[in-house]
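Q: What structure does this chain adopt?
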Amino acid sequence: MKSIERYWLILVIALLISCSPEGNSSSEIIEIDVLKALDDHRDFPLSKLISRVELLELENIKESYLGRPEIMYFGEKFILMYCSQRHLVFLFKRDGRFIRQIGQVGKGPGEYSSRTLSTMDPSEKIIVAVDGIRGKIICYSTDGDFLQERQYGKDTPSNMVDGISFIGPEKFGLMMRRPTRSADGYSNVILYDLNLNPSGNILPRANDDNLVYPMSRRASFGLNDHGAFYWESFMDTIYTIDENGSAKARYQFNITKNGLTRSFMKQNPQGTPPNAISEYTFIMQVTETPRYVLAPVKKNDYCPLIIDKKANEAFTTGHRTACQTEIRSWVKSSIENDVFGIETVNLNYYWAKEKCFVYPYLSFWIASGFDLDCFRNKKVLQPEIRDRLLYLTEHPDEEDVTVLVIMHSK
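A:
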């Protein structure tokens, strides 16, 4: 009898170990064959991804002029915008009303340089900005008051920040660009608390010359339905990041295993042979929604890669950008926009908490390179959205109006 009890005890312990996260973490990594997906091209119109679209026109006054607008944060109470023409950060109410400018360009405390990334904490009480030129993090209140700042250069050998995101209520991370030379102490993400104290590193990496050399050293860092995620181009892997900063691999793309190495690049100082470049596939960035992972893939040309997490399959989609009159080499394909017609469709900014894609409509871009009547003649699900955007495009007196296109995901 005792031997039988011992047998069952050993069996239960074995089952518990096999079911632990540590025991099956490797088997949970889903491998995506990108080269196979490139051969599996499917129709995937915007209506399969988006349930509805709305427009939000930001208050247009002299103080809030944005010029070339970029969206930094889209929340329940506030919207944070950056003007790449004036190099300033602006705070708006969620309904589009202008509140104030945040900080100013300069060299003093609380001032930033010509290129600034910014975000807000989950409670939307603190604004965190990163000055990538002078290497500092700056905190402001929503009243516009300068709170504190920190030089991040002593925390990392990399001097370029490509992204910033909160991973929890009181912790945020800076996504560092991978150095081009060997650098001890490099980590993909550096964590800080709200007092700007370093609180950990995510995915520390030695800058090994033998690692595959992607065409882009950039990565992607943001929020999804799991919390936070990080896409590491050098490892072809998407990780889920919990509130403590622990990373767990979830997807592996397997496209740079046979890619160009730094050693190969060093042996070809006059440039990589064209045939090697044309055969090289790489991903520029990654966006994740509850149902899909989206990534533009480059092999001779760009096309959208779609990973359907529910069906556990990957494929490419897109078509030649509709109604284009001026061929722009970097914008040749787009997801078919059967919702409001105007292409290309910008799916780079996904706000997990609001479950929507948001981007500023660039009327000057559309006016200079597309046939507006062609857009107008397309059969779409929300013609009122298309017509309002085309009106703004066709009336020069409206060109200073910043309109956010809000696409709610299914």
